[in-house]
C-alpha cells in the first residue's frame, strides 16, 4: 500500500507563493508519473502538473510559467512550487501517483485571497 501525504497548503494573498509537498511511503523512483491535481468548489478535479522519472513535466495552461513541479528522490517527496498565485488557484490540491495502481493523497487546502 502506497501512502501519499500532502502538506504546505494555507491562506495566501494574491501574488504570493506557496510550496506544497507530497511525501511518499515508498521510493518515488517506482512511482511514475506523479502529479498534482486540484479541485475548486463546484468544479471537477483537474490536472495541474505532472512529472515522470525521465525528467519530463507537463502543466495545465493556466499555471504554466507560475508553478513548478519537482522531485526529491532522496526524500521521496514531490513538490509543487506555486508563484504568482491568483484567486482562481483556490482549491484542494491532491497528490497522485501511479505504481501498480493509482494512489491519491488526502488533499491540502489552498486559499488565495484577492
Largest sheet: 7 strands, mixed
Radius of gyration: 13 Å
Strand tally: 11
Q: Give the SSE string.
A: EEEEEEEEEEE
User: Helical element count?
Assistant: 0
Could you list the spans in which at least 5 consecutive residues all have pLDDT below 50?
A: none
Estimate the helix proportion, in percent: under 10%
**Strand content of the residues, in percent?**
over 45%
Q: Mean pLDDT score, rounded?
A: 97
Shape: globular
| Overall SS class | mainly beta
User: N- to C-terminal separation?
Assistant: 40 Å
What's this entry about, in short?
With 114 residues, the protein is mostly beta strands. The protein is 0% helix and 52% strand. It contains no helices and eleven strands.
